[in-house]
Design brief:
heterotrimer, B: about 350 residues, mainly alpha, two-stranded antiparallel ribbon, disordered N terminus, C: about 190 residues, 4 helices, elongated
Chain lengths: ~625, ~350, ~190
């Protein structure tokens, strides 16, 4: 796989922009307050510019900040859980707890509930779509912005508003103690702030819907000339599938939370057996959304991994069409399996069997993807940078998570494993070992594009290592615990003291994981604020998608000056770099930045001279 | 070395030298762009053409409407499930709703859909009078709908039918679950005793009802779902007491069979409303009725506000055949509200 | 660009930008169809009931013996009405791309999926319980034993044990196919 004319690789830091095409007018600087505005007025002006922006890139960055904060909150709550479970509580003769705990049982209920709610609704569901999706979608399809930029800003406001509702509920009233699943009848009877949290989640649901709506319309209507559906980067296919799920599923959680509120306030009785209702109906309603929600969480991660696999193997992603269509298949099939959360709830055996069967089927498209990604690396030139380390972690950890998901999807097995730590380990493997790894990998990958700066590669590798080790320490042992019978959501385990060593391993692992995530944070802060940080070139990784080949780092305020004309696929490294494989220690970069600004027409234009691009579809 | 071709394709709207106005007579809605050519004032810079912008807007609206369908759909599912479980309760309870008023509301809403579509036609034809007139007519019709709904609701409250056991109108208002006399509720149906062999266990339907009535009368107020007693007794007690008091119901005919049989009879069909309403399940129908029509009415109010904005801007001359996207989109929203009612009406009032 | 005055010659009577302009006759026709269908569905429903109360005037008459078909008939007529509203008033018939129609029908079909699978649960409750491998009397004996044990424990520690098993209300979730005797094997319902 020798290259034809590989120039000596120019170190990333030494590559400069062509003269006159430096990213001066990048989105971070434009628009900005007038130069004569100074001091507090300048800070206020900056705040107003960012708070009222309709630029999808700025919105994406704001989401990133918010999402990171909420991740930290959820993470601290998780550390609380793990610390509480570090030891079996010491009890006196009568059975009352006198030591070995850091919180009461009731507090513990609130802690794990809030951990779940914050992680699911405030962090994971918006994580990749709202941050990287918002930032990259228009650039990757060659558009100037999303279809409805003001709606995009509204989405952000709604998200922050809903999150504030939820956080206020936690701070003022101590949160909810029903578990993040709000099951009736307890959620109807408990005195905690269920309505407040439900309304917070309801509001955030709107943000999810509007973001999905925006993305679908943008992908359908605003692709650049030559960007056919089959030339879209796989990240966009997965964002598209995610958006379909968001649109179809989220309204149902909306009505569920409204009905729950009506139950509490009016006593309408549809979930109350004393009035003829059925609590299992609530579970049907809840999981009709919440199962597709987990596909909202994982599909964008699949997309990120596709991008990372392609770029860091320097090869086309194998089986483009299979990967693209399997995303859509997962999105649609994901609506048919919600009952597998209810195998032990008293659901009829017939429907349990049907749901179990379809659950097995849905493992197939996921498996297709894994195989395609592995095949992408085969005979490629694998470049083990930090994003690739996270992507490889994803492959390994998501596979474990997915396979254990099939295990609990088996009806007979689930009778024993339901509501044990086995399930907890399973979903943490897919959500954290899956989505969060992809999220971190994506952040590292697109960091140069978003900030125009390079992060410290050594710190990145250390963080990837710590996160991987810590994660496995924390959660692998939980498979064992669960199969030994450790129930989930339990404050203490006095009748199973032999599990204590396992819990200790898990808790220690969680601290290692926390340390790894701190290193990520530190890496980001150093990159942003250190004077020694190197500026990033337009295409440090040698990617082939439009954001790498056609924009500066950071991108211009308007993304492009002219609508790009797309003539090759998203992973055509051979076309762009005359190479495939064989990177010899660095991204093969030709003498001049390919596809950079100098490739565009010389006449500067504000964009009204544009062709009639694709309006079909 | 491969250079990446980036092409600026000629914009067909860029005049090739001829400077004739391309406004099609709508100059007041066009702006001169940076390139010296006219383009619609409402064309956003990230869209390439008005066509693309319009189609995008419409697709966005349709996607939002699909969320509305799923939102109401949740309530339809709840309705459907309980209907399947307790058809006789639903059939009897729906008799309490006024079919004529419901049909009237349906016709009102259908007419409002017509006026809304006609308003869009007015915008498309640049006929401001038609546009504004029909928008106002739509608002008027929607208000008629709300007024009729108001009367329906107040009538229900007067009869003691409330959204839920906690809903309080004013102290002392009787609620259905407390009903001792059945004089105020509408149709009085008594089950005509028909052949004994039609029912399992050899009991006649009338006897069933008598049993049920006596059970209802004799059973503790907890089993009846009396809210105060339920709260005092705690959860689960109602269940146990009901089980204790109604164990012979295990031998009764399957739910709904009575109603079905009577229907098959083709003869006069009567159901003892006292029983239906004393049993705690009548609330299942009415709570869903109130929640569904309540949320629907909320959507009507939102629609009225939106159409109000449209009317205001139409008077100011904002809409023309060049750009009438908001009218189109609000129209789509209005038709979905109508479509939802088209399904709510037969489900609640007719069957 | 064609001159404005000559646009009337377009086949589709398109307005500016190629949008279909709503045709007056079509709108009126659609409305009349909708009204007729509404009247039809109301008349059918009242006929099936055998009873009507129109502003206080009560009528009894021969009821149309359709039985359970009243539901599909009413929903079928409603669907036809929805077709007319969606295709003519909302313009789906005149769009050249089927995307919006797909969005509409797609969301409706997911709603049907939601209802269908949930119904699958409720329709088959109690289907297999009577076919449990453990014979009913053995189960009953086991339950008796467990109850006795619980009582003994209650006496021993002086604190009331929580109820072991609650007998299901056979009426609550639909009557099982065969009438269960009063002391039959109770189905323990694990509380979620």
């Amino acid at each position: 796989m020798a290259t034809l004319t590989t120039p000596a690789p120019i170190p990333v830091e030494a590559r400069a922009y062509p003269v006159g095409h430096e990213p001066v007018h990048n989105y971070l600087r434009e628009p900005r307050p007038a130069d004569d505005v100074r001091g507090l007025a300048r800070a206020w002006a900056w705040f107003k510019l960012w708070a009222t922006t309709v630029d999808h890139k700025r919105i994406g960055i704001m989401y990133l900040v918010a999402v990171s904060v909420f991740f930290s909150v959820g993470g601290l709550l998780a550390l609380g859980i793990r610390t509480e479970l570090f030891t079996v509580n010491v009890r006196d003769a009568a059975g009352a707890v006198i030591g070995g705990n850091i919180m009461e049982a009731d507090t513990y209920n609130r802690v794990f509930t809030m951990h779940g709610l914050v992680m699911v609704f405030l962090f994971i569901i918006p994580s990749i779509p709202a941050t990287m999706g918002n930032f990259l979608l228009p650039i990757m399809i060659g558009a100037k912005d999303v279809a409805f930029p003001r709606l995009n800003l509204l989405s952000l406001y709604i998200y922050v508003g809903g999150a504030c509702l939820a956080l206020v509920a936690i701070v003022l009233t101590g949160g909810v103690d029903t578990g993040w699943t709000f099951y009736t009848p307890y959620s109807k009877e408990t005195g905690t702030a269920v309505i407040w949290m439900a309304m917070g989640a309801f509001v955030m649901g709107f943000s999810s819907i509007l973001t999905g709506l925006n993305f679908i319309v943008t992908i359908h209507k605003m692709r650049a000339p030559g960007m056919t559906w089959n030339r879209m980067p796989l990240f966009l296919w997965s964002i598209y599938a995610t958006s379909i799920v968001q649109i179809l599923a989220t309204p149902v959680i909306g009505i569920t939370l409204v009905l729950l509120t009506m139950e509490r306030v009016l006593g309408i009785g549809i979930f109350d057996p004393a009035l003829g209702g059925d609590p299992v109906l609530f579970q049907h309603f809840f999981w009709f959304y919440s199962h597709p929600a987990v596909y909202i969480m994982i599909l964008p991660a699949f997309g990120v991994v596709s991008e990372l696999m392609g770029t860091f193997s320097r090869q086309r992603v194998y089986g483009y069409r299979a990967v693209a269509l399997s995303s859509v298949a997962i999105a649609l099939l994901g609506f048919l399996v919600w009952g597998h959360h209810m195998f032990t709830s008293g659901q009829s055996p017939v429907s349990s069997v049907v749901f179990s069967m379809i659950t097995f089927l849905i493992g197939i498209p996921s498996g297709i993807k894994i195989f395609n990604w592995v095949w992408t690396m085969y005979k490629g030139s694998v470049w083990l940078k930090t994003p690739m380390l996270y992507a490889l972690s994803f492959l390994f950890l998501f596979t474990i998570g997915g396979v254990t998901g099939i295990m609990v999807g088996a009806l007979a097995v689930d009778i024993h494993l339901h509501d044990t730590y086995f399930v907890v380990a399973h979903f943490h493997y897919v959500m954290m070992g899956g989505t969060v790894m992809a999220f971190l990998g994506g952040i590292h990958y697109w960091w140069p594009k978003m900030t125009g700066l390079l992060y410290n590669e050594t710190l990145g590798k250390i963080s990837a290592f710590l996160v991987f080790v810590g994660f496995n320490l924390t959660f692998f042992i939980q498979f064992v615990m669960g199969s030994q019978g450790m129930p989930r959501r339990y404050y203490d385990y006095p009748d199973m003291p032999w599990l204590e060593p396992l819990h200790r391993v898990s808790t220690i692992g969680s601290y290692v994981l926390g340390l790894g995530l701190m290193v990520v944070l530190v890496n980001g802060l150093i990159s942003l604020f250190s004077k020694k940080t190197k500026k990033a070139p337009g295409n440090p990784w040698g990617g082939a998608t439009l954001e790498w080949t056609h924009t500066t780092s950071p991108p211009d305020h308007h993304n492009f000056h002219h609508t790009p004309l797309v003539t090759h696929g998203p992973y055509d490294y051979e076309v762009l770099f005359h190479t495939s494989g064989d990177s010899q220690g660095g991204a093969p970069v030709p003498d001049v930045e390919v596809g950079g600004p100098q490739e565009m027409d010389q006449t500067v234009d504000d964009g009204t001279r544009q062709p009639d691009s694709a309006t079909d579809y | 070395m491969a250079t990446l071709p980036t092409v600026t394709v000629d914009d067909p709207h860029v005049a090739h030298g001829d400077g004739h106005h391309d406004g099609h007579g709508h100059e007041e809605h066009m702006l001169v762009g940076h390139d010296g050519q006219l383009h619609p004032s409402n064309l956003r810079h990230y869209f390439v053409s008005s066509e693309q912008q319009f189609e995008s807007s419409k697709l966005g609206m349709w996607l939002f409407l699909s969320t509305e369908i799923l939102l109401f759909g949740g309530m339809f599912v709840a309705y459907g499930i309980f209907r399947v479980l307790y058809p006789e309760v639903y059939e009897a309870a729906s008799l309490q709703l006024d079919t004529v008023l419901g049909a009237l509301n349906t016709l009102v809403l259908l007419l409002s859909s017509l006026t809304m579509a006609w308003a869009i036609r007015g915008a498309q034809m640049d006929n401001r009078r038609v546009l504004i007139g029909n928008l106002v007519a739509t608002i008027a019709l929607a208000s008629v709908f709300l007024v009729v709904k108001y009367f329906e609701y107040t009538h229900k409250f007067h009869e003691g039918i409330f959204p839920g056991i906690n809903f309080q109108l004013e102290d002392g208002t009787e609620r259905v679950s407390d009903f001792t006399g059945a004089t105020e509720l509408k149709p009085v149906f008594e089950v005509t005793p028909h052949e004994a062999e039609h029912t399992e266990g050899g009991e006649s339907a009338a006897e069933h009802m008598e049993d049920a009535a006596s059970l209802a009368g004799g059973a503790s107020s907890v089993a009846l779902g009396d809210p105060v007693a339920v709260e005092e007794a705690g959860p689960g007690v109602a269940l146990d007491e009901a089980v204790a008091g109604e164990s012979e119901r295990a031998e009764a005919a399957a739910p709904g069979e009575l109603a079905r049989e009577a229907a098959e009879e083709g003869g006069e069909r009567e159901i003892n409303k006292e029983t239906i309403f004393k049993e705690r399940r009548a609330g299942l129908f009415f709570s869903i009725y109130f929640v569904m029509t309540g949320i629907h009415a909320l959507h009507i109010v939102i629609g009225i506000v939106a159409i109000g904005f449209l009317t205001f801007f139409s008077v100011k001359g904002r809409y023309s055949s060049v750009w009438y996207t908001p009218v189109e989109n609000v129209g789509l929203y209005w038709h979905i509200v109508d479509i939802i009612w088209i399904f709510v009406f037969p489900l609640m009032y007719l069957i | 660009m064609a001159d404005h005055a000559h646009t009337e010659g377009h086949e589709e009577h398109t307005g500016h930008g190629g949008h279909h302009v709503f045709d007056a006759a079509t709108l009126k026709k659609t409305f009349l169809i909708l009204v007729s269908l509404t009247i039809l569905t109301v008349v059918l429903a009242l006929w099936e009931r055998g009873y009507a109360d129109i502003f206080g005037l009560e009528l009894h008459y021969w009821a149309l013996p359709v039985g359970f078909l009243s539901v599909p008939i009413a929903l079928g007529i409603a669907s036809i009405k929805v077709y007319w509203v969606a295709s003519r008033f909302m313009g789906l018939k005149y769009e050249h791309s089927g995307t919006n129609t797909l969005v509409f029908l797609g969301s409706a079909s997911f709603l049907l999926v939601f209802f269908g699978f949930t119904y699958l649960d409720f329709a088959f409750r109690g289907t297999f319980e009577e076919q449990s491998a453990i014979p009913a009397d053995v189960l009953a004996a086991e339950v008796q034993e467990a109850r006795a044990e619980a009582e003994a424990e209650t006496e021993a520690i002086g604190v009331e044990a929580p109820p072991l098993v609650r007998q299901a209300d056979p009426d609550l979730f639909g009557t099982p196919a065969s009438a269960a005797p009063a002391d039959a094997a109770p189905t323990p319902e694990p509380v979620e």
